[in-house]
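# step 3/5: fold
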Amino acid sequence: MKVLGIVIAALLLAVEPAHAGAVGYEQVSVPVPGDRPLAMGIWYPSDAPEAKSAIGLNEQSVAAGGPVAGRRHPLIVISHGTGGSLADHYDTAHALAEAGFVVAAVSHTGDTYDDRSRALRIVERPAQLIRAIDYLTGEWRGRTAVDASRIGVFGFSSGGFTALAARGGEPDMGLVAPHCVDHPAYFDCALQRQ
């Protein structure tokens, strides 16, 4: 058993992390035909030096605008909950980029902390997520570093709905009214009464 422990320890020491360099970051404005641009933050592996940088109410250590290091990075797109922003999961995005992923978080147009004008139009969110992926794999300056065959989505609350619907889930919005009759105090039902 002692020999097995030594072999496992040796193997762990020999394994290199996917990316041990810095994390690059940039915020972009993605054009959306017939709508306002989509705000998006992008974290990615970089070899440029990091410095403290503000994101929302928080601070992160990133290589702002640094070049993308490496190739064939898997892509993770993050969708925030109602009333959130691209900064909501910055710590998760940073950790994933440090591990070798390209990570993008959108601020869903009309469903952010400073603009709730379209918070009830949840069915618009999946198209925003798809537009973000199209931008990252086809127009973004670092697109050649993205492995378009390995794309994942992380969503929280309304972002979970967004991720499922973007993947092909078909919501039955006709179930909302009966749900709110049974649960009028739930947040989603209260939001509809505003």
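# step 4/5: annotate
The longest helix spans residues 125-138.
# step 5/5: archive (pending)
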